UniProtKB/TrEMBL annotation:
The lineage of its organism: Eukaryota, Filasterea, Capsaspora. Residues 1-27 form the signal peptide. It is a multi-pass membrane protein. The chain crosses the membrane at residues 111-136, 216-243, 276-297, 338-358. Keywords: Endoplasmic reticulum, GPI-anchor biosynthesis, Membrane, Signal, Transmembrane, Transmembrane helix. This is Phosphatidylinositol glycan anchor biosynthesis class U protein, variant 2. GO terms for cellular component: GPI-anchor transamidase complex. Pathway: Glycolipid biosynthesis; glycosylphosphatidylinositol-anchor biosynthesis. The keyword Secreted does not apply. GO terms for biological process: attachment of GPI anchor to protein; GPI anchor biosynthetic process. The keyword Magnesium does not apply.
Length: 363
């Protein structure tokens, strides 16, 4: 009940700021030049442009403005159509008339983005809260099990530092509050940035990985990578998380009763090769499904270069808060492809060694 209250407060805060902030301030936050909040990959203005091109019968990727994946365009289009009919349309029109100066032809699309961002923020917070709660049980189960093999770890000491159900609930609630009331996430919502959608997909992948749901973890990991490429780097650590069997303590209401559950904690086993294979199968399967669905939606593979090629090749050298754009304006064009690929893809080099190095965290 308390969690529901916090969620309602977070939603009310976001909508209240959206409707009550002075127009100049709101316009400043929603300025496409606010690179702290919006990038070409998360800009709702580019999303609107893509949907407009589709309505005109043109490919959304015919120019160099749209870099959202086809299924993202499809989702926003479907939600915006639902907002055009029934009482929902009347409510959104009334709010739009009093809150912003949205054009009639784009107000439904904008409110679709707002609605999806709200839902993504809430679901991402709940997923992270679930991960936090499970992690407390996970780590405490490992600690108590390890103390069984240490003579110096007395029962009194283990009982004193035992984690209770209330501790796990507090960790989950704190995580949820930090996410929902984070000023940056609120500003991203006000800027209509779609970054919250990516955060929801990543958080969901983590949640289902710690819950040992291979198919769902793979689905959200693939969708996150499909939207912004780099979450594909999570495939290896998620596979290890799913394949490992860490001890999870069944928490109790009081520390004194926690030691009674130590014997029920199962010792961690080695990484299951079969689980890795199953997770890999689901990653490949979902990748094929998503790619095929995208092709069927726009009848073209143009989105591959528009979404992933844009990330890797860095064709947009508009000045931003980083230094990479300046670096690429100074190098010779002959060397540009090499440095672009090195700059953009070097992060994947660290995935395997880091996953191997920190695999013990899972056990």
């Amino acid at each position: 009940m308390q969690i529901a209250s916090w969620i309602a407060a977070a939603v009310a805060l976001r909508l209240g700021l959206l409707m009550l902030l002075p127009s100049p301030l709101l316009s400043y936050i929603q300025d496409p030049q606010r690179y702290e909040l919006v990038t070409p990959l998360t800009s709702h203005r580019r999303l609107l442009e893509g949907l407009h091109l589709m309505e005109q019968g043109a490919s959304p990727y015919s120019g160099d403005l749209v870099h959202h994946a086809p299924l993202v365009l499809s989702l926003v289009q479907s939600v915006s159509k639902q907002l055009k009919v029934g009482p929902v349309a009347q409510v959104s029109a009334a709010i739009t008339a009093t809150a912003t100066s949205m054009a009639p032809e784009t107000q439904h699309v904008r409110w679709a983005v707002i609605l999806l961002t709200l839902v993504s923020d809430v679901l991402a917070g709940l997923a992270l809260a679930g991960v936090a709660r499970y992690s407390v049980r996970w780590l405490d189960g490992s600690r108590l099990k390890n103390n069984q093999n240490k003579p110096e770890a007395s029962a009194a000491t283990s009982s004193l530092f035992a984690v209770t159900e209330k501790d796990a609930d507090d960790a989950a609630q704190t995580t949820l509050l930090v996410w929902l009331f984070n000023p940056f996430s609120i500003l991203c919502f006000l800027a209509h940035s779609t970054a919250s959608w990516d955060a929801f997909l990543i958080a969901s992948a983590l949640y289902f990985a710690v819950k040992q749901h291979s198919a769902l973890a793979a689905l959200f990991c693939v969708l996150a990578g499909y939207s912004s490429l780099y979450p594909i780097a999570l495939v290896a650590p998620l596979a290890l998380a799913i394949a490992s069997h860490p001890p999870v303590l069944q928490l109790h209401s009081a520390p004194s009763s926690a030691l009674a559950a130590v014997n029920s904690v199962q010792a961690p086993s080695d990484v299951s090769t079969w689980r890795v294979v199953v997770f890999g199968f689901w990653v490949v399967a979902w990748t094929l499904v998503v790619a095929l669905a995208s092709y069927l939606y726009i009848d073209s593979w143009d989105f591959v270069d528009a979404v992933f090629g844009f990330i890797i090749q860095v064709p947009d050298l508009t000045p931003n808060i980083g230094l990479m754009w300046y670096f690429f304006t100074e190098i010779f064009m002959h060397f540009r492809p090499f440095f672009a690929w090195v700059f953009q893809l070097h992060v994947f080099i660290y995935v395997f060694p880091l996953s191997v190095q920190f695999r013990q965290v899972l056990s």
